[in-house]
Amino acid sequence: MRPLTRQSPLDEILAAANQVVLGKSRQTRLALCCLLARGHLLIEDLPGVGKTTLAHPLARLLGLQFARIQFTSDMLPADILGVSVFDRERGDFRFLPGPVFAQVLLADEINRATPKTQSALLEAMEEGQVTTEGETRPLPQPFFVIATQNPSNQIGTFPLPESQLDRFLMRIELGYPDHGAERALLESGGRREQLPTLTSRLNAGDFAALQAQAGAVHASAAVLDYLQQLVDATRQDARLVHGLSPRAALSLLAAARAWAFTEGREMVLPEDVQAVLPSVARHRLRLLSGNHASAEDIAALIRAVPLP
Q1: Which candidate, 233, 276, 236, places its Cα nearest to that of 252?
Q2: How far apart are CA 258 and CA 46, in angstroms?
Q3: Is the CB of residue 145 less than 8 Å from the CB of residue 67?
């Protein structure tokens, strides 16, 4: 298996991002894989562990247009999509695009807005367009939503609808930093001040080419069999409300291809499917108890399905 071309820009991007988000190299790689797989990313964890900090360097390093929305309980859909205002000089209404018209949209603390406001992103995330006042407008390409959310047990949060959760290709958690990474943060006073110094390693055209290469990574029949067995196992698990959908299976394959691509390989291994499965599956699988599947549940699933 010879190394893929154009691998060095990805290595540079990961190395630069890891200088800002310390001690989270796996999560950073997963986030990059999500974007390479043309998917949207949900980052869930406690306030102050670096959720927002992870989104900024990725947008800067990939050379993509960036916009940020701080979600609050009083937000309206128009605050995201845009609004028409009357132009006295022209004598008609003029549409003022909202922050959704960007290549990377950071939806910060998305679950602090009401479900009505959250749903304003559904069409954008699924179809790359928005419809307002009877007119459909395309969004810039590529278009990604990187959303952060606080744990649902915190005051002032609204759960994301299942339909919206399913539109996120991956959900990741950052967790507390290890001792060494936290010590480096304490000694440096934080790493956010490095964000303005980051320079893009790519542009939108370069990144589109990398996406195409990632999507072309070969998945053998044996790997597809293994992936289907994992998906079937979720559908037969009596502890789950429902199993993974066909869209989730496609997302799992796309994420596994992207993971293999970042590893410098041109074919998917079963280990690539296992590496991305928790991030792709956990937010899509709900137990009969009402909770989403845990990391231990996914680990048990992997152990139960034999390798090809």
Answers
A1: 276
A2: 27
A3: no
